[in-house]
Specification:
With about 375 residues, the chain is of the alpha/beta class. It contains 14 helices and 15 strands.
């Protein structure tokens, strides 16, 4: 099985914290989308006939594009690729784009899952983050999605905001749970370079949240989701049985995928490729047959390290028989050190983080990285 990722590089307005590639200028939208259609056609053979199990429209804001533009892309995929009989097809959407009519049209086009960029149910937080929707629109959109009978849906929430306390975070989780969400993606606010938020922090206009507060909010998140019956299957993701993100799970498990559009990444098991972060350069490259991407071939060490980084984030951990290095031998002291702290477990041939260890997932993975000798 393999996946398709489609990057729609347009947004209505810029969020203060976002470092993904996007443009708020939609004048060349049709040109970019046409180039993406051509890229789909040009690269259809790269997955070597593998069945496409998941399709993910991300961005940017995919819910900005017209229904026919979305349907046209899906038709091209069905013509050029072998699509599974029951694919998961996800569309990221913002609350201000949700209507009964659009939900029905997306469903008719083949969308099976909606990922809603809620982020917060508080008006002042939405303004701080530069979101285009209101708190009322966030709740209304969730109710409409719940009634639309998609196979699944999810919402995003952000914690670790400046001056956010546990009562506010509890309030956010309660609202989400009360509206019946089957899946939640919850992310701690990160100050990324070259974002409006980074500029505000540098100027002293915004003070970052304290590490202890962020950690406490993560603990409360795990506690509330466990009580509500949502499985913590990846560091930032919680879902009821049957509602895990199949697309993202395939990433974490090392599946192959093809990324289409400006800045989109692809992976075939040994080579990683990424398109340019420029709508103009991307469109020109596709149209003229020029090079609009860069790539690298991963060494055995790179492949092992990637599986450690992604696998340790999941409830399944890392299958030691599926990686190319004997981590238990190479890093025996590091492994034992994290095991003795109660942060890591060696269980049934797998390395798995404990609940406490989930706070240190990236650090633990980096401690187990191997040095490349085969470039």
């Amino acid at each position: 099985m393999a996946g398709l990722y489609i990057h729609i590089p347009f947004c209505r307005q810029a969020c203060t914290y976002c470092d993904f590639h996007f443009s708020t200028n939609t004048k060349r939208k049709e040109e970019v989308l046409s180039a993406m259609q051509r890229e789909l056609e040009l690269r259809a053979e790269e997955l070597k006939g593998a069945t496409i199990d998941t399709i993910y429209f991300g961005g940017g804001t995919p819910s900005l594009i017209a229904i026919e533009e979305l349907a046209s892309m899906l038709r091209t995929m069905r013509e050029r690729f072998t699509i599974a009989t029951d694919p998961e097809i996800t569309l990221e959407a913002n609350p201000d784009d949700i209507t009964e009519e659009r939900l029905a049209a997306w469903k008719a086009a083949g969308i099976t899952r909606i990922s809603l960029g809620t982020q917060s149910f508080r008006e002042e937080r939405l303004r701080f983050m530069g979101r285009a929707h209101t708190a009322n629109e966030a709740i209304r959109s969730i109710d409409l999605i719940a009634k639309a009978s998609f196979a699944s849906w999810t919402i995003d929430l952000i914690y670790g905001l400046p001056d956010m306390g546990l009562p506010e975070w509890d309030e956010q989780l309660t609202i989400a749970l009360d509206h019946g969400m089957p899946h939640l993606s919850a992310y701690c606010l990160t100050v990324e370079p070259r974002t409006a938020l980074a500029h505000q922090v540098k100027k002293g206009l915004v003070k970052e949240a304290d590490d202890a507060d962020q950690s406490a909010q993560f603990d409360r998140l795990m506690e509330r989701m466990d009580t509500a019956g949502l499985d913590h299957y990846e560091i930032s993701n919680f879902g009821r049985s049957g509602h895990y993100s199949r697309h993202n799970t395939s990433y974490w498990n090392g599946a192959h995928y093809l990324g289409i559009g400006p800045s989109a990444h692809s992976f075939d098991g040994r080579t990683r490729r990424w398109n340019v972060r420029s709508n103009a350069a991307y469109t020109k490259g596709v149209d003229t047959g020029g090079t609009y991407w860069e790539s690298e071939t991963l060494s055995a060490a790179d492949r092992t390290n990637e599986r450690l980084m992604t696998g340790l984030r999941t409830q399944w951990g890392v299958d030691l028989s599926a990686i190319e290095h004997d981590i238990l031998n190479i890093h025996s002291s590091a492994v034992q050190g994290h095991v003795s702290k109660g942060h890591l477990q060696v269980r049934d041939g797998r390395l798995v983080l404990s609940k406490a260890g989930r706070h240190f997932a990236d650090r633990i993975a980096s401690d187990l990285f191997v040095v490349a000798h085969d470039r």
